[in-house]
Design brief:
Length: 253
């Protein structure tokens, strides 16, 4: 059985004080109310990684992740944060290739393959995002695009490296729009991704890869989405910013 993961992507939200309150409220609610063994990750802005990590202490269920890292290991890249820096802070996860990075910061498959490599080299697990924009879904070419994104970002890896990657399918038209993919649409694409992984790495390896769904996941739809056979949890934006909502989403896993 694959580990269920519910990751909150806080994006560029919250002051430090608000971040501390959110993390502490979710931590308390998870301890008191959440059964099962779903893993929770707070993907927080860079400045909050250490404070939130320190606040969590040795929490076995909840860990922290970054939202990006540089493709370079060190050097004159003002404003960037490297994988070795994250590793030195004890950060286990990093989101790579989020659609907002692809769209607003021009990150493409080639760059993302480099970021995946540098993250893995330094012992971080990438949460690698893929997903199609609305016009691609409407043109019915979404499966081809997502397969291409997965190939570009991950297919150069060997099987052992791939097993350290978490994939997040996030259709761009569902992000922050309140328009979530139906459970069937999510399951269909997750199955396409897993079959594509199997075509390269074999079914046994593909069956171990955790594939999260992201895009307007909320307390009302989480359980149905996370019950799909190929959906192993979620990458959650808006609903991860409110402790009660996020806790309810976690309960769905
Ligand atoms: P929303 O849950 O706000 O739609 O955002 C999804 C997302 O982009 C998570 O990475």
């Amino acid at each position: 059985m694959r580990q269920k993961i519910v990751a909150g992507n806080w994006k560029m939200n919250k002051t430090l004080e608000e971040a501390n309150i959110l993390a502490s409220e979710v931590t308390g609610m998870v301890a008191d109310e959440v059964k099962g063994d779903a893993k929770v990750i707070f993907c927080v802005p860079f400045p909050y990684l250490l404070p939130i990590k320190n606040q969590l202490g040795n929490n076995a269920r909840i860990s922290v992740g970054a939202q990006n890292c540089s493709e370079h290991e060190s050097g004159a890249y003002t404003g960037e944060v490297s994988a070795p820096m994250l590793k030195s802070m004890g950060i286990p996860y990093v989101i790579l290739g989020h659609s907002e990075r692809r769209q607003y910061f021009g990150e493409d498959g080639k760059l993302l393959a480099k970021k995946v490599d540098v993250a893995l080299k330094h012992g971080l697990s990438p949460i690698f995002c893929c997903g199609e924009p609305l016009e691609v879904r409407e043109a019915n070419t979404h499966e081809a695009l997502v397969k291409k994104q997965v190939e570009e970002g991950l297919f150069h890896l060997n099987a052992d490296a791939l097993k350290k990657v978490v994939i997040a399918y996030e259709p761009v038209w569902a992000i922050g729009t309140g328009k979530t993919a139906s459970a069937q649409q999510a399951q269909d694409m997750h199955a396409v991704i897993r079959t594509h992984l199997a075509s390269k790495y074999g079914q046994a390896v593909a069956d171990t890869i955790i594939i999260l769904y992201g895009g307007s996941v909320n307390a009302a739809n989480a359980k149905e989405l996370f019950s799909c056979p190929d959906v192993d949890g979620g990458l959650v934006g808006g609903a991860s910013l409110k402790s009660r909502d996020f806790t309810e989403v976690i309960k769905g896993a």
